[in-house]
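Q: What residues go here?
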């Protein structure tokens, strides 16, 4: 479910999303990498196999998605009260 929500938020933010199969070496060539699940929400991946991904810092798009996801969770939590 979290993945679906992240895809929807990305579309709302004008971020293109596509689902493709990658090799592990592709991660090191990526501009940004993040992982998602219901417990951790969205977490940037800045290193892989001891090597930095794009300078070893979270990317701007990941930051936008994290902010939008947190806002959505906060809104839904407030609505349940």
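A:
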């Amino acid at each position: 479910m979290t993945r679906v929500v992240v895809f929807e938020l990305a579309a709302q933010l004008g971020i293109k999303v596509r689902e493709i199969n990658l090799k592990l070496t592709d991660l090191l060539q990526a501009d940004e990498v993040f992982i998602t699940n219901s417990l951790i929400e969205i977490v940037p991946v800045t290193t892989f196999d001891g090597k930095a991904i794009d300078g070893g810092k979270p990317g701007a798009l990941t930051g936008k998605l994290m902010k939008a996801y947190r806002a959505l969770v906060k809104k839904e939590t407030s609505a349940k009260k």
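A: Context that may help when evaluating the design: Helices lie at 2-12, 24-29, 60-80. The longest helix spans residues 60-80.
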